[in-house]
Amino acid sequence: MKFNLTVAAASLLAVSLATPAFAQTSGADVYKKCQGCHGATGAGNAGMKIASFKTPAVVKESDAALTATIKNGGGAGPIKMPAYAGKLSDDQIKAVVGYIRTLQK
Ligand code: HEC
Q1: CB of 68 closer than 6 A to ligand 1?
Q2: Is the pTM for the entire model greater than 0.70?
Q3: Within 13 Å of residue 20, how many CA atoms lie on the same side as its CB?
């Protein structure tokens, strides 16, 4: 009985310690920096000539291709995608790519 309580307490501690670290790399959190151009739902911005993340061509892009765009920036329109290499960690970029995938559903 005592052993079980110790295990339960240790698991609770592990969860409470893990939560803040997870929140820091939450894709939804990182995406707040992107909303101004890509929209809260990833629908893009017609006036800025930014396509929706749901555009079939963007859905088809690999995670590696999306990661490269996020790191290096670019774009052919009047507004350029800023380069986030050095501004976001690899974990944050991975998290935000995962979040973009949820916006594509
Ligand atoms: C200043 C405006 C701006 C901000 C801020 C911005 N982007 Fe972009 N992003 C663009 C533009 C412009 C493109 C090129 C879009 C196009 O060609 O349709 C682009 C393209 C992309 C693409 C490639 C898919 C596509 O539509 O071709 C991804 C993925 C992306 N952005 C993710 C992000 C993420 C993640 C963030 C935040 C960390 C972010 N963007 C912030 C403007 C922005």
Answers
A1: no
A2: yes
A3: 3
Quote the CA–CA distance of 92 and 79 in Å, as a whole number: 23
Nearest-atom index, ligand 1, CA of 61: 24
Q: What whole-number distance in Å separates Cα of residue 32 and Cα of residue 45?
A: 15
Q: What are the domain boundaries of the chain?
A: 25-103
Could you tell me the fold of the domain covering 25-103? Cytochrome Bc1 Complex; Chain D, domain 2 (1.10.760)
Q: What string of DSSP letters covers 23-74?
A: HHT-HHHHHTTTHHHH-TTS--BTTTTB--TTSHHHHHS-HHHHHHHHHH-B
Distance 81 CA to ligand 1 centre (A): 5
Positive or negative CA dihedral for 81, 85, 88, 89? Answer: positive
Per residue in 55-97, pLDDT tens?
999 999 999 999 999 999 998 888 999 999 999 999 999 999 9
Regarding the beta carbon of 93 and ligand 1, being less than 6 Å apart is answered no
